[in-house]
Amino acid sequence: MLLTMMLALCAKKKQRLPPPKTVPLSEVVSQGGTANQPTETAPLAIQTVPAARKEEPLPPIPVESAGENDPKAPPESKGDTYMQTYSFSSIKRELFEEKILKMKQRQGFFSEFDRIESEEEKFGDQLTASTAATNAGSIKNRYTNIIAKDWSRVKLKDREENEDYINANYIHGYKQKKAYIAAQAPTEACLVDFWSMVWQENVKVIVMVAQLMEGTSEKCTRYWPLSQGEEIEHGDFKITYVRDDDIQDESYTRRLLEVVDQRDGVTRTVWHLHYESWPDHGIPGTEDTIYTVLKDMNNLRATEEPTESAPVVVHCSAGVGRSGVMICLDIAIKQMENDGMADIYNIVLDLRKHRAGMVQRSKQYEYCYEALLEYIKRNGRTEATSAMESQSVGQESEDVTHTTNNNESKDGAGNADVAVTGGDVVSSDAKGKGKMKMEPCLD
C-alpha cells in the first residue's frame, strides 16, 4: 500500500514539470550553434563572445587659431597655447637616443611621417585656401601647389579685398602665438608685398634657407642690396645694406639692413640671416651652421624686440621644407630645454595645420630627430650615451647631470626641401606678368 502511494505522488510531480524548450535548428546555427547538435533541441543558453572594442585614435594636441577673426580655424583650434600639453609621441631627454635607435631599427621615422601625411589629408579639406586660388592670388604663388591657408595666412593691410594676399602663414611657437611667419621666397611680382609684410609685422629678423639659384633654377628673387652701402627701393620702402658680420662660416652670412618707410621717414633695422649651404637634394654634413643660425635668430630677436612679440620670417623657396625643419627644430629645442622632453610628431602635425607640407620629406622628418639628438649630446649627455661609455670601459653606469648651455647651441646637418613629390609645377616668371614656366619645385 505504501509503495503504491509513493508511486502516485511521483507521477503527479512529473506532470507539473514544464516541457523542455525546443529551438529550431536554423536558429541554433544562426546564433553560433552547430549543425551537429541532435534532433531539433538545443541548450537553453547560448553564450556569445562580445565584439572586440575598437581602439580610438589618440587626439592631436589642441592648437589655437592664429587670430580671433579667422574664417576657418583647424578642427582642434581651442585650448591651451601651442604644445603646452604632451602626448604619446613625447620623448624624454634621457630616453631620446634610445628611442631614435629603436625607430631606426623598425622604420619608425617613415611610419610616423606616413601617419602625418594621412592626418593632413583628413583635416586638409577643412582648411581652405580659397583666396590663394583667385586670379589675384594665383599670380603671387611661386608654385601652384604651395599656397597659403585662409585661416592662418598673413593679410596685407590697407589693400583692396582681393589684393591682400601674400604666400605666407603665421606659425605658433613654443608657448607663443605667431612666433614665426613661414613664407615662400619672393618673386619679382611680390617684392613690394614682401617688404610691406616685414614692415607691417614689425619683423626684426629674416631667416633665408636657400640660394638665389640652385642648379639652373631660380629659387628666390634677390630682395636686398647686393653690397655694403648700396640702396634699393621697393614701393614705399628703401633698403640699405649696412654691413655683414665676420662669422668665419662660408655657408652663412649675417647681414644688417636698414629699412626706411619713405612715407613718414621712420627707420628700422632688420637682420638678414642667410644659410646658403643647405643643398637642394640631401642633408648637409656635420657643420654647426644650422645651430649658429638658430642661436643668432633667437638672440637678435630678443635684442631687437625685448617683448619678443614680433614674428621671425623664415623662408626657403616654397617655404615648407627647409623652412619647416628650421621652425620644427627651434620649437623642439625649446621644449627640451624647458620641459625635458620634445614631441616632434605633434610639432610637425601642427605646422601642417598652419601651412601645408611643412617638413615635407620623410628624410627631413628623420633629420629633425637626429639634429635634436646632436644638440642634446653637445649640451648635456643622455643616459644612453653614458651607459654605452661605461660599458666600453667595463665600469658601472653612473648618474649623469644634464646641463644646457644656451651659449653654445651649435650643431650641423640639414635637409633638402621638395615641394611636390615628383612632377612639375608652375612658377611665375621673373617679370611677374602672368607668364608661367614649368619647373620642378625643389625647395
UniProtKB/TrEMBL annotation:
Region (Disordered): 16-42, 56-82, 386-443
InterPro entries per record: Prot-tyrosine_phosphatase-like, Protein-Tyr_Phosphatase, PTP_cat, Tyr_Pase_AS, Tyr_Pase_cat, Tyr_Pase_dom
Domain Tyrosine specific protein phosphatases: 291-366
Polar residues bias (residue ranges): 28-40, 386-395
A GO MF term: protein tyrosine phosphatase activity
Compositional bias (Basic and acidic residues): 69-79, 430-443
Top-level EC class: hydrolase
Keyword Hydrolase found: yes
TM segment ranges: none
Substrates-to-products reaction catalysed: O-phospho-L-tyrosyl-[protein] + H2O = L-tyrosyl-[protein] + phosphate
One Pfam entry name: Y_phosphatase
Domain of life of the native organism: Eukaryota
Enzyme Commission (EC) number: 3.1.3.48
UniProt entry keywords in alphabetical sequence: Hydrolase, Protein phosphatase
Stretches assigned to the Tyrosine-protein phosphatase domain: 109-375
Protein name, as recorded: protein-tyrosine-phosphatase
Organism: Sphaeroforma arctica JP610
